[in-house]
Each structure stands twice: as C-alpha cells, then as structure tokens.
C-alpha cells in the first residue's frame, strides 16, 4: 500500500489552495455583478470596495431593463443570428471538413496550406468592409452570419475528428450504394457528436458575444444585437430611455444598478447552455486535437 509522503501532502495542499484562490478570483466578479443588480440603487451608488451581500433588495433595475424596447429587439436579433448562424456554421464547416479529410481529394495539402494561411493573414478591416458592402450585405443581419460562416480553427478541429473515424465505415457504406451526403449525415456526423457539440459552443459563444461587426456593418438601431445594446448602455450611458418620467438625479442613481442588471440579462442565457454541452466538450476537443 502506497502512503502519501509529507512533500506530496504539502504539494496537494498548495494545489488545492491555489485552485480555491483561482476559483474565487474567477467567480467573485460575477457574484459582484449579480449582487449589485439586486441592490438598492441609492445605497449602491455610495458603496465602495467589496460586495459580499446585496445592499438592500430591489428588482427595479430588472423591471427597467425589460421595459426598454431595445433590449427585447436586441434579444430577438441575437437569437436570429445565433440560430441561423449556427445552422450555416455547422453545415458548411462539416462540408469543408469532410472534403478535406478524404484521402482521395486532389491537392489536399496545398488547399489546406491556403486555408491555414487565412488564420495568420487577412486583408484588413477596410477591404473586408468594402467586400461586405459590395455583395449587398451592409445594414443587414446577414452581414453578421455569412462572412463568419466558417472559422479556420474550427474547420481544422472538425477535419481532424473526421479523420479519426475508420475508413472501413465509409468503404462499407459505398458498397451499399451510399453517396457522400449519406456518408456525412448518417455515418460521420452521428459518430462525431462530441466535436459537433464543441462546434456549437464555439460558434454559439462567438455569435452571442459579437458586437464589433454589428457596430461596423449596421446603421439601423432596430437591427442591433444584444451585445451592441449592452455596449451603448455601459460605455455611452444611454440609460435615460429606461426610466420614463424619472428625475435627473433618480436617473443617475438608477443607472448604477441598471448597468449590472443589463450585464446579467445579457450573460445568463449563454451560461445556461454550457452545462448541457460540458460533458461533450473535453471529449470533443481531445478528439479534434489528436489525430487517431
């Protein structure tokens, strides 16, 4: 029977202490925002330092957030971009990964070289803007979807996962008369669900958090996604539309908790998705990172 030595016990204790501190540093900002969002606005305005419990209790900030029509429009636009964008992302990335994972594809290495090249070099923002404008996507939610249809890193990840599937499965399917579409959707993808879950998480979080391209390509405020609305509230202080009939002093006071409530409203939905994908995440990332 192996006994743990004192140096090993000290090392384990230090590891546990370090991880606990790391967890505290990671969790506390989220906890601070959550507690501040339900605190009394007047008390919160004069508070400085750590916050370990709510300063009073009030849901007025959340009420005012949801009274703002831009929040609901932002939610609708973001959900459209996430749902439609994920459909484009998964299908097109799967098509590209399947083609590049086939050993019969001619010039596969040069093609991969050109694809990997795009990870490190691009034309810049101005040519990108004119390209989007030239194809008629300016001031359209499609400008947030089509140019981001395939991410090079995700394509390589999925390609590597497809290569790990035995060739004998494809060969037996072709003997039975299956074409490439049948092989991809009925054999390859069902066997690659962990890496598909990773793609859903990567692409989904990217769409949900995206605001810069929306700021560049959208002029109509009714098309703003949630994160761009949040940016306006946090950085430009556009909170007056949330407090109809409030005095100037009350607006300044309520704006403190409104910002925290808006952060929670914009963050919670994507946090709720992660637990459902977590069990696939590590397995899918490993499958896609190591060629079997």
TrEMBL record:
Question: Domain named ABC transmembrane type-1: which ranges?
Answer: 75-264
> Which protein family is it in?
Belongs to the binding-protein-dependent transport system permease family.
Asked whether the UniProt record includes Membrane among its keywords, one would answer yes
* CDD domains reported in the protein's UniProt record: TM_PBP2
Q: Where in the cell is it found?
A: Cell membrane
Name this polypeptide is given: Carbohydrate ABC transporter permease
InterPro entries for this protein: MetI-like, MetI-like_sf
One GO term (biological process):
transmembrane transport
């Amino acid at each position: 029977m192996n006994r743990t030595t004192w140096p090993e016990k000290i090392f384990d204790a230090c590891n546990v202490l370090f991880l606990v501190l790391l967890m505290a540093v990671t969790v506390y900002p989220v906890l601070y925002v959550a507690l501040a969002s339900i605190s009394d606005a007047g008390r919160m305005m004069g508070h400085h330092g750590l916050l370990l419990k709510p300063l009073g209790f009030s849901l007025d900030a959340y009420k005012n957030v949801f009274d703002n029509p831009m929040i609901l429009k932002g939610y609708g636009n973001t959900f459209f971009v996430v749902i439609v964008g994920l459909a484009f992302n998964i299908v097109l990335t799967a098509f590209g990964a399947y083609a590049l994972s086939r050993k019969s594809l001619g010039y596969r290495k040069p093609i991969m070289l050109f694809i990997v090249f795009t990870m490190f070099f691009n034309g810049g923002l101005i040519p990108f803007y004119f390209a989007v404008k030239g194809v008629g996507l300016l001031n359209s939610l499609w400008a947030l979807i089509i140019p981001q249809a395939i991410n090079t890193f995700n394509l390589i990840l999925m390609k590597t996962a497809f290569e790990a599937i035995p060739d004998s499965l494809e060969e037996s399917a072709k003997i039975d008369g299956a074409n490439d579409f049948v092989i991809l959707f009925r054999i390859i993808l069902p066997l690659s669900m962990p890496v598909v879950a990773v793609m859903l998480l990567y692409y989904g979080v990217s769409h949900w958090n995206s605001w810069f391209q929306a700021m560049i390509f959208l002029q109509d405020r009714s098309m703003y996604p949630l994160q761009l609305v949040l940016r306006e509230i946090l950085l430009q202080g556009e909170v007056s539309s949330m407090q109809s009939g409030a005095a100037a002093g009350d607006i300044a006071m309520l704006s403190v908790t409104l910002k925290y409530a808006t952060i929670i409203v914009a963050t919670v939905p994507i946090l709720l998705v992660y637990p459902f994908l977590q069990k696939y995440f590590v397995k899918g990332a490993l499958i896609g990172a190591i060629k079997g």
